[in-house]
Specification:
Layout: H1 2-8, H2 23-45, H3 59-65, E1 76-88, E2 95-105, H4 108-116, H5 118-130, H6 134-137, H7 140-160, E3 168-178
Antiparallel strand pairs: 1-2, 2-3
């Protein structure tokens, strides 16, 4: 009787599986999009083949593509410690200069020679720093000129001792105070 009541009532629908005709079409579209995305990603990220020079390009093209310079050694720094403190200036104007100097080379033997000859180097640098003019040292160009003169003084002392002073490549002022 319950079954008869269910058949007669207009709100009750029979329990039958639905046959949806759209499901296979959706699955095919999702599959095609997945394949297209995979192909696009492969094309975008695949390794690029190396260019080979044409047969008529010759040896010059191959030589130009190869690196010419060997990698340089890492720089080594040596700090002349303690910092230089000198008085300088004209008559009646006592001014002081405190400067910390570091030398740079890529050759450890050159820095060892600098370390062994440090008293002579410090002497020449004290004489150099104390002979400066305060107006010159206040400009960046004056400081750069003093830095070049400092490098020349260090190289000269090392050359006088029979060491290759040119292996000291640069000198840097890591502290520069004028009072």
């Amino acid at each position: 009787m319950a079954e008869a009541a269910k058949k007669d009532s207009p709100n009750v629908k029979p329990l039958r599986p639905k046959k949806d005709g759209m499901l296979p079409v959706v699955l095919i579209i999702v599959g095609l999009l997945t394949v297209a995305g995979s192909v696009g990603a492969w094309l975008a990220f695949k390794p690029k083949p190396a260019r080979v020079p044409a047969a008529g390009a010759g040896v010059a093209a191959v030589a130009a593509s190869q690196p010419t310079a060997a990698p340089r050694a890492a720089p080594i720094y040596y700090k002349l410690d303690p910092a230089f403190v000198v008085n300088f200036g004209g008559e009646g104007s006592a001014r002081y200069l405190q400067v910390t100097v570091e030398a740079m080379s890529r050759d450890a033997a050159a820095l060892d020679a600098l370390k062994n000859n440090e008293p002579a180097v410090r002497n020449d640098l004290v004489l150099l720093f104390s002979s400066q003019d305060s107006a010159t040292l206040l400009s960046a160009a004056g400081k750069e000129k003093l830095r070049a003169a400092t490098l020349d003084a260090i190289r000269k002392v090392l050359a006088d001792e029979g060491v290759h002073g040119e292996k000291i490549e640069a000198v840097y002022f890591t502290s520069f105070v004028i009072q």
